[in-house]
From TrEMBL:
Residues 147-277 form the EamA domain. Its main location: membrane. This is EamA domain-containing protein. Belongs to the EamA transporter family. It is a multi-pass membrane protein. Keywords: Membrane, Transmembrane, Transmembrane helix. GO terms for cellular component: membrane. It comes from the Bacteria. The chain crosses the membrane at residues 40-61, 73-91, 97-114, 121-141, 147-165, 177-196, 208-225, 237-257, 263-283.
Length: 292
């Protein structure tokens, strides 16, 4: 029987895959909520409820706040806020899979920066090809909202900062870092959301339950799992494996929102998955050679 405690790398990969599925599935729920509430309101509620859920679950009151590296936590929280808000603003204007494709430029840049072996560039190159194929060049390319694309690229830059800041020591556990980071991110966004018009209807029980579900699927669960995964994965592996995000997002949009995919985009899913598997295999082999 496989002992996960003795295989932290495999455990980290499983955590990351669950986080990606949870995150991208929640994107479909968020797009449904956009029909009733402002985008920034949905973003703020996601971070607020996510941070409160984690605060209770991980007993935030037990943290020694004197030992917290607030600079690192604040950087992480700002990255979360930017990634969250800009991504939601982008999917309000673009199909889910296309938005994530543009956003993925951020983690892909991190992966490319840390590439060292020749196969690293092969897998990153495949991920780029997959992202290229995911773009609908032969259909409605002109109809893509340029503001939505700009939002997605901004979310990608915040995603890159999220990966880097998530690996810096904060003086507390990863779960407590996520909790405090989400709360800081919420504090950054809530004045803007209130100014833009945050309806009180979000707290009505019939609506509130959907925001709780969104907070769990989009924040509390994936951010906690990603934080644990970042402790055992290199930036290269994390950045390349997240190339699965556009594929999962495209499938989620197809299943839950009826967003159709072209044949080239289905091909893109296969290419992106191949890059993720290849990156995992070659990195593990290189790691084993160093240890033996």
């Amino acid at each position: 029987m496989l002992n996960f405690k003795n295989t932290p790398h495999l455990q980290a990969l499983i955590f990351l895959f669950i986080a990606m599925i949870s995150m991208q599935s929640s994107g479909s729920l968020a797009k449904i909520l956009f029909g009733q509430f402002p985008v920034l309101t949905v973003s703020v509620m996601r971070l607020l409820l996510g941070s409160l859920i984690l605060a209770v679950f991980f007993k935030i009151w037990r943290v020694d706040f004197k030992s917290v590296n607030w600079k690192s936590v604040a950087t992480y929280g700002i990255a979360l806020a930017g990634m969250n808000a800009l991504f939601y603003l982008s999917i309000a204007r673009l199909p889910l899979g296309i938005a994530v494709s543009f956003e993925f430029i951020g983690p892909l840049s991190v992966a490319l920066f840390h590439a060292r072996q020749k196969f690293d560039f092969v897998w990153v190159g495949l991920a780029i090809l997959g992202m290229f194929l995911l773009f609908p060049f032969d259909q409605a390319a002109q109809s893509l909202d340029p503001i939505g694309i700009a939002y997605a690229l901004g979310a990608g830059a915040c995603w890159a900062m999220y990966i880097i800041s998530g690996q810096k020591p904060t003086g507390i556990s990863g779960n407590h870092t996520v909790c405090l980071g989400m709360f800081i991110g919420m504090l950054c966004l809530i004045p803007i959301a209130i100014y833009a018009g945050m309806p009180f209807a979000v707290f009505e029980p019939s609506n509130f339950v959907y925001f709780i579900a969104l907070a769990v699927l989009a924040s509390a669960l994936p951010f906690s799992l990603e934080m644990m995964a970042l402790r055992s994965l290199t930036p290269l592996v994390f950045g390349t494996l997240t190339s699965l995000e556009p594929a999962i997002a495209a499938l989620s949009g197809f299943v839950f929102l009826g967003e159709k995919l072209l044949w080239t985009q289905w091909l893109a899913l296969s290419v992106i998955i191949a890059a993720s598997i290849g990156c995992t295999v070659t990195t593990n082999r290189a790691k084993n050679k160093l240890e033996n």
